[in-house]
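# nightly structure sweep
# worker-07 picked up a monomer target from the shared queue
# config: single-sequence mode, recycle default, output format = structure tokens
# input follows
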Amino acid sequence: MAGLGSYHPSWDGPHCFIVEPPPVFSIQGYSWYQDPTPNSYPGLDSTEEPMRFVKIEMFDLDSNGSQSLGSMYTDEDGWFEFNDISNVDSNGTGGQDVFFEVTAQNTRVVVLKDVYSNKHIWATPVAYDLADGFYDTLMIASVDESKPFFVADAILDGHSAWESQWPPNQYFVPYGQVFLMADSMSSGYDSYNDLIFINDSVDNNNGWPDTWNRSTMLHEFGHRISSTYSFCDDTTNSPSSHLPWVAYNLQFAAMEGFAHWWSAFVDSTPIRTYYWDDFTDSLWLNFENGEYGHTTADGSFNAMGPKCEGAVAGILWDIFDNPDDGYSDRADWGTLNLGPHYDGIDDYIQEGSDDILDALLNRYYGPNRPDNIHEFHQTWFQSPDLGYCQEMYNLFYEHGDSLQPPPKSCSCCLNRGNVDNIIDRIPIDISDLVYLVDFMFTGGPPPPCWEQGSVDGDAASDIDVNDLIYLIDWMFTGGDAPPSCPQ
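# output follows
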């Protein structure tokens, strides 16, 4: 600088420096839980399942506490990876002292220990003074630590099945919470707090160990769906406990029947299983043929009617059903009496889930979505018609709903006056007259197709004595033939 002279640096080199890479490590691998009920439902062929889409966080443990080294969500296979993590311990004592915490929450649900707080978190043992380098690992939680992840995984499947039915953002069920409790409270859904309760007790006096029961979890998620969108919504004084083979009331049966069907739909099987006695005994339900039992069949809820949740679930399953699924191999019970119904048993439509959900979500019975199976039946046939008039009647009749007539206008009409709808003989004969008399005066079943029972063509009104007179006049006195069915 001016006035201070000149300064010229000098070198006594050259020098050679060795630049060491920074101390880092990388860990990648899988995080799995142990399924508490191996092979208890279709698709399980091992006792270890991936912790899908769950939050995993890595920590360094020091005397002054734990410091987070990063967090991420696993993928659908439970895969995670933490790359190039600094391995400089904050205490300067060597490598990091590493452990992981995995939270029982995924992209759709969180499992809680206490209501709205204290998430279930599984912590791995600490790996002390980790050396630099690369690690490949497999972390498997113990059976006890696995239960919350089993719950979260089941609810995730329920969400995925629901979202597969709709375009993005249409009828979306939001992120939810599950409260896993170990007390006398039974499993259920609290619509006020939007909270699923799952019983974590193996005390037989307090209920089944529902935590280990995928059927129950999907059933309760079904309640969350119907509550969110206000269908099959029970506002009655419903019972505190219930059984699938007992009749209660129309709304309660529809609410529980939909939840049963939803559970069966997600797992693609009409057989639902419940456990108690630490898995030494189980109760199974078969919504296809109506049977239920323990080690042997105890009875059937088939033909028990619209106030029975098992029968409602059977109606919905038979609409959805694949007839070749093999679940109807067991014979229906000898006590099942379908009276004069020509159709017999084992009806199905095989229409899939979309039309069922369409009738529940997009159609209204008065100002509300349908709240019972009769209202569902009516919304099914609102314009535009979903069809299957005769088949729907057969299903309802098979499951004990002999008092529910088909809609008064539907697509089944071929010949007015063919009251019994038997088409493999002369379309109209004396059996039709007998059928009509039996319906009008002795409590017989209504005509399978209302349009065909409306002999005089006035289907908008009740089938009455005018139809009987019209049929007698045509058959025996040369009166006019019944008018044609609507095109």
